[in-house]
Amino acid sequence: MLMTGKEYIESLRKLDIKVYMFGERVENPVDNPIIRPSINSVAMTYDLAHDPEYEDLMTATSHLTGEKINRFCHIHQSREDLVKKIKMQRLLGQKTASCFQRCVGMDAFNSIYSTTYEIDRENGTNYHERFKKYLLECQKNDWTVDGAMTDPKGDRGLAPSKQKDPDMYVHIKEVREDGIIVRGAKAHQTGSINSHEHLIMPTIAMGEDDKDYAVSFAIPTDAKGVFMIYGRQSCDTRKLEEAADIDLGNNTYGGQEALVIFDDVFVPNERVFMCGEWKYAGMLVERFAGYHRQSYACKTGVGDVLIGAAALAADYNGVPKASHIKDKIIEMQHLNETMWACSLACSAEGSKTDSGAYLIDLLLANVCKQNVTRFPYEIARLAEDIAGGLMVTMPSEKDLKGEFTGPWVEKFLNGKVGTSTENRMRVLRLIENITLGTAAVGYRTESMHGAGSPQAQRIMIARQGNLEAKKEMARRIAHVDVSKDK
């Protein structure tokens, strides 16, 4: 069943989601003004699936049932699927100018699917069949699933099993005949509050002493013992102001992150997909990281909006033809398309795993994400440069509408002759929102730390780069006789 955005929102109302914000329980997360924009972003992933113009990108055919499903619940069956995935993500970035929060679940589906296949083949377990049954549920119900990998980690110089507090990594507290009891937390969880389910994965490669931490499972968002503490964002309380509109920059869409806590949560066996198989934790992490680094194609969609906003700001400032402005906008486009090119390349170079699912080229996926840790910062800098200082010093929306202050704001904040002061303010607030405000956590900071911080990609680039083969190429061309080096 393909839900609509409205049906998705109503489905969240049926859940008893336990959310805390500013130290207090949020009784109605769906209609909370701080949370609701992020729900609207997820709703877009449902609505576009019903739009004939975008149906080919937003939907796929389930390889399990042959039925049409939302692409966010799909297991990639070809390189074409991998390419359509990133085209969908860029489209959604363009439509929301924010994080739309379903990518982590999609990437978790695909990484767990192939990893459980290989665990079962080598160990005689039945995790893959369990996972396929779970995936069928997700596809049938069109669930939004939070793929949860990042643990708080505590002392990062110590392995999970060596932590003073064992809960710094999600771990198995008890194994029962009918399931397991887990404790711990997952940090920085994008879209967790807006999800129907949480799909948990280990966060690092592990040793035998860490086997209690090698766990993967699925749990409903409102399961007993699961609760979330909402992450604070810059400018978030502007949403609490009466009739807030212009000052928000983006008054409809947004992202969200939370700290998700598992306080002695029971997970039935049919929803357990890894239970102590520590040797495969690294494989799962590597595959998820690769898929999710490919997913940063979404930043190019938000980048498209930011570039457009910067160009509009130049129009309102009356300088669209200035050579240095044109050059900066060209540079923004160059950086944005370079990010896109790497995401496209790692998709086009994907290959089939033993499970039948397609995996991206891991080297190129890591190069893609390494670029994303840098280029959005320069794009944002250039946008701020073009926008001018007024972006961060202009008076509020209430001042624009104030009986006394309004005429003065209207007079002195006007730009190019014949243009609207209000429209100029709206564009500048949008740039502020993406570069410094509530969307900045998804565009800038997540670009740095999401799917692994920069050093994680550099480690993978070193591992995947096959330096020895490159040395041999150089030796052959230069006619190097290695026997002379001994």
From TrEMBL:
- Indicate the segments forming the HpaB/PvcC/4-BUDH N-terminal domain, all copies: 4-274
Provide the residue positions that the database annotates as binding FAD: 190
Give the GO molecular function terms.
lyase activity; oxidoreductase activity, acting on the CH-CH group of donors; vinylacetyl-CoA delta-isomerase activity
Domain of life of the native organism: Bacteria
Give a yes or no for keyword Flavoprotein in this entry: yes
- Keyword annotations of the record: FAD, Flavoprotein, Isomerase, Lyase, Oxidoreductase
User: Keyword Oxidoreductase, does the record have it?
Assistant: yes
Q: What is this protein called?
A: Gamma-aminobutyrate metabolism dehydratase/isomerase
Q: Which gene encodes it?
A: abfD
